Amino acid sequence: MQRIISAMECYLSALPDAERIEAINALRQAIHQLSPFRDQPVDCVLWIKQDDITANDYNPNNVAPPEKRLLSKSLELDGFTQPIVVSENESHHYEIIDGFHRHEIGKSKATLRRQLKGYLPVTCLRKERQEKFDRMAATIRHNRARGRHQINAMSEIVRELSLLDWDDEKIGKELGMDSDEVLRLKQINGLLELFADRRYSEGWTVK
Fold first, then answer.
1. CA distance 206 to 200
2. Residue 158 and residue 178: Cα distance in Å, rounded?
3. SS3 string of the chain?
4. CA neighbor of 54 nearest in space, from 22, 18, 86, 91
5. Best mean pLDDT range from 22-31, 68-77, 183-192
6. What is the overall mean pLDDT for the chain?
7. What is the pLDDT of residues 113-151, one digit of tens each?
8. Beta-carbon contacts of residue 78 (< 8 Å; ≥ 6 apart)
């Protein structure tokens, strides 16, 4: 074991930064494949170039200015204690599932850019959760677990899932909602197609 560690230290120390980061990522991925915890995304944190990470177009999370300033200060003083959760939807191209504001601050703040050498820490969703609407559901779960989400954006996602023939039960199960909450989010859009064939207590059905 010590010989392996010494050889690895010798190999890595001889590389320039960019090649060293690439090599460390490769070693982590190799170890991850053999890890008893390989089903857990956090078992493998990679350093990815900031320009290879993009925001998604559906995030319903919002951070108030005071919280955003506190997050910025935390990243400067404490460093990144949580990786950005991403989906690798193309080779070496990553879309954010959770951590948009950490990404935004890490990419835009000059002191952090210098500290991080233009990289950010990420962990990837499992391959079977890579479809767009699986990613959308994962973003909602992350946001709701922290108690922060924008109702209108949540409603729009429920609308999109409904139009893809997800029924209320599946939407509720995937997004961690009960049937009444799913119904309320549908009502916000006020779109008739979301209520097609739903029978009300008065005995009439929307057509």
1. 9
2. 13
3. CHHHHHHHHHHHHCCCHHHHHHHHHHHHHHHHHHCCCCCCHHHCCEEEEHHHEECCCCCCCCCCHHHHHHHHHHHHHHCCCCCEEEEEEECCEEEEEECHHHHHHHHHCHHHHHHHCCEEEEEECCHHHCCHHHHHHHHHHHHHHCCCCCHHHHHHHHHHHHHCCCCHHHHHHHHCCCHHHHHHHHHHHCCHHHHCCCECCCCCECC
4. 86
5. 22-31
6. 82
7. 999 999 999 999 887 666 777 888 888 777 765 555 566
8. none
Q: How far is CA 196 from the centre of its chain?
A: 32
Confidence at residue 145, expressed as pLDDT on a 0 to 100 scale: 53
Give pLDDT tens digits for 69-109: 888 989 998 999 999 999 987 777 899 998 989 999 999 99
Q: How far apart are CA 61 and CA 84, in angstroms?
A: 14
- List phi, psi (to 5°) of 124: -100, 140
Contact 86, 168 (CB under 8 A): no
* Model confidence, pTM: 0.68
Please give the angle made by the CA atoms of 93, 101 and 116, to the nearest 5 degrees. Answer: 65
Q: Residue 185: pLDDT above 90?
A: no
- Between 177 and 56, where is the model more confident? 56
